[in-house]
Amino acid sequence: MRQNYAAYTANDRLVWKTLYARQRENLEGKAHELYLECLDRLTPVMNEDLIPNYDDLNKVLLETTGWSIHVVKGLIPVEEFFELLAQKKFPASTWLRTMEQLDYLEEPDMFHDIFGHVPLLMDERYAQFMHDFGKHGVANLKKSHIIRQLQNLYWFTIEFGVAEHPSKIYGAGIISSFGETNHIYDEKTDVLPFELDKVLGNSFINSEIQGHYYRIDGLEAMYNIAFENIA
């Protein structure tokens, strides 16, 4: 599959512009500094006035960390997901939500996939962590209990991860969501200390804003998670 860039409409461009501009401003003081640095580095090929062309993004990613975007229709089986990560390919859809879906979307669209996930793939350590994640998943595809643990870990780090104190968000599910970003800073929201055993055993719901999050001491602590100990 390939991105049909010519198919994007004026309404698509308005949705992208609205999402990007609103969330870029909203992330100031909330997002992890590394994410914001990486996002700014991508400005020539991804900004509020430009729906990203995956060919252009891939040139930058490949030159920087060896990663690329692999186009998918939507959610894919976990086996395929891990196999793509192990090949340094990040699965991303090409469709955009509507103006009526700006605040929350159950199934990830390209704004979530690209704005949320891709910037941090510009960082060598983060990109290596993702690669290791994929390789460990592929090595254990026949061990369902390990795959469940890896899915939980991915959910509470890569998708909905929070680092340091005060909270600095880095998970793509928060980064790409206006409502979820602000939810983190509600005093009633539970942001719990990151304990690996609890995270591995904590199942998740993907159809609503999260009820709680885990705050890791820093991205370095995430990079130091030993996948070989997840067994």
Helix content bin: 40-55%
| Pattern of helices and strands | HHHEHEHHHEEHHEHEH
Mean pLDDT: 94
Order of neighbouring strands in the sheet with most strands: 4-3-6-5
Rg (CA only) = 17 Å
Approximate shape: globular
Distance between the termini: 35 Å
- Name of the CATH homologous superfamily: Aromatic amino acid hydroxylase
Characterization of this structure:
The protein is α/β, with parallel strands linked by helices and 231 residues long. The chain has a single domain (8-229), classed as Orthogonal Bundle (Phenylalanine Hydroxylase). It is built from 11 helices and 6 strands. The strands form 2 sheets. The chain has a 4-stranded mixed beta sheet. A two-stranded parallel sheet has the order 1-2. Helix 4 (78-86) packs across helix 6. The chain is globular. The model has no long low-confidence stretch (mean pLDDT 94).
List keywords for this structure.
single chain, 231 residues, alpha/beta, Phenylalanine Hydroxylase, four-stranded mixed beta sheet, two-stranded parallel sheet, globular
Summarize the structure.
With 231 residues, the protein is α/β, with parallel strands linked by helices. It is built from 11 helices and 6 strands. The chain has a single domain (8-229), classed as Aromatic amino acid hydroxylase (Phenylalanine Hydroxylase).
